Amino acid sequence: AIALTGEMNRRFYDPEQGGYFDAPRSLAPVLPQSKETYDGAEPSGNAVAVMNLLRLAGITGREDWHRMAETTLRLFGRRMLNYPTSMPQMLAALQFSLSAPRQVIVVGSPEDPGTRKLLRAVQGLFGPHRVLLLLDGETMGDFLAGYQPFYATLSPPGGKPTAYVCRNFTVESSTTDPAALSRLLSGMPP
Fold first, then answer.
1. Kind plus residue range of the DSSP H or E element containing 134
2. Is the pLDDT of residue 190 over 60?
3. Are residues 69 and 126 in the same domain?
């Protein structure tokens, strides 16, 4: 996701005004450079890009991606105000940007039944302002620690799959019990 976002930014982002072109910038001499915002049967590329930038910035701490998302939201602000029903996914991205999303980080092997139960506990609850991550112990944890050293501090006690509820790279709570995790998340704003 991180590599694809970098490629998306390189090929489609407008560094002068913000927003994403519908065709690669390299084709500007051949194709018109437009920026779609209308959510039809599929959300617009700009809305999806903004939400991805916000979520990945929250995972990696990449402030440049957060700024790109904010710039794009500002670019389409007047359109959101005048035609909100045509841009529901962009409005969802705006709402996400105004929240302080929680990260629920499950540390454990994807094959472990305990890990799967913790993941199901999170996925079974409505949480549009929540980011769910699975750290498989070594590979993903080491990769993300390259962006934020915080991830290297998360290790399951006794090797038991553990869910950490965090905000701004600070652990608020942790548990190994799926029912306790459901209760904890149910008591928090979505």
1. strand 130-135
2. no
3. no
- Kindly report the average pLDDT of the chain as a whole number: 91
Residue 179 has pLDDT above 70, yes or no: yes
For the residues of 77-118, what is the DSSP string, one character each? HHHHHH-GGG-HHHHHHHHHHHS--EEEEEES-TTSHHHHHH
Cα distances (angstroms) measured from residue 45 to each of 145, 172, 181: 29, 34, 34
Instruction: Quote the percentage of the chain above a pLDDT of 90.
Output: 67
- How many independent structural domains does the chain possess? 2
Domain shared by 53 and 33, yes or no: yes
Q: What tens digit of pLDDT does each residue of 80-107 get?
A: 999 999 999 999 999 999 988 889 999 9
Q: What is the CATH number of the domain that holds 134?
A: 3.40.30.10
Which position has the token pair 């090797």? 159
The alpha-carbon radius of gyration of the chain (Å, integer) is 18
Other C-beta atoms lying within 10 Å of the C-beta of residue 79: 14
In which domain, by residue range, is 61 found? 2-98
